[in-house]
């Protein structure tokens, strides 16, 4: 068989092979065999040295034509495979837009966070700023700056988790008072802040006591702040939170950082003041401590107590939540029972 017959045979068989390719991989194999570097066409080109020089241009031309033909057929076959693959994918991944969508389940906000957000917005609207102090607090800010030197008997009022001599888990958010008082520039206006956060005490847990709970500190310092400003503020908070009908009372109390000091009680949600196990048969639940800022607290922070005075309060967010939602055990806030939390879920659409 001469070279032209060989080329003719290769053209026919090559075209047949390309037409019969089963998939892209198979087609690629055929391409390598026909037009690849070590393919049959290249082999024929190498054998040109054995033929008469006058024949060589003709053979070369023929080889080029066959290569172009193969390449064109291979490209067409490849396009067909790609097209078929796209169609298969489109058919498989078809979306039925008439199917109903999947329902997203909403989580619920923790009741204490609901109260916290509500109170924060309330105070912000009255021009207070919101500060956040550290949960691991120093003895210096938690007690000493608050007029509670070491060995002061009133330290027993708040059983403390000490980390070492100087560091402790804060028992109250009152340290925030000292921190902001130190920094406040009174030439720019009065100081009005609230400081919410977690606090810790070595208290025995019961229906209204937890060893970890949340407080919101409040502090207002300016010239001419009076006890009636404090009373008005506390009454407004209570009415805002519990409605007009809930009874409240202020009792004289003692805190080293305020003078005079008071505590506010709200009538028990469970017995409406008659007395029950939740309110320990008093008819009242204590929600906050407050008073007029002690001059020593101002002086300790470098504020002139002969010019400035103010009021402060520390309210128990857990107690607020107990009274607002009628919850009979504070421990429900910390056990993370989903059935309990679900009750505070906003309506799902
Ligand atoms: C204080 O912690 C003062 N720092 C409050 C204060 C601030 C007074 C500024 C004056 C000026 P007391 O220990 O009473 O005070 O706690 C304040 C509130 O935290 C209580 O009224 C109560 O609502 C809440 N509370 C106290 N102990 C617990 C507890 N173990 N579990 C849950 N809530 C508690």
From TrEMBL:
Binds 2 magnesium ions per tetramer. PROSITE patterns: AA_TRNA_LIGASE_II. Keywords: Aminoacyl-tRNA synthetase, ATP-binding, Cytoplasm, Ligase, Magnesium, Metal-binding, Nucleotide-binding, Protein biosynthesis. GO terms for cellular component: cytoplasm. Residues 115-343 form the Aminoacyl-transfer RNA synthetases class-II family profile domain. Mg(2+) binds at residue 259. Pfam families: Phe_tRNA-synt_N (PF02912), tRNA-synt_2d (PF01409). Its cofactor is Mg(2+). Its EC number is 6.1.1.20. One of its GO terms (molecular function) is ATP binding. The keyword Membrane does not apply. This is Phenylalanine--tRNA ligase alpha subunit. The gene is pheS.
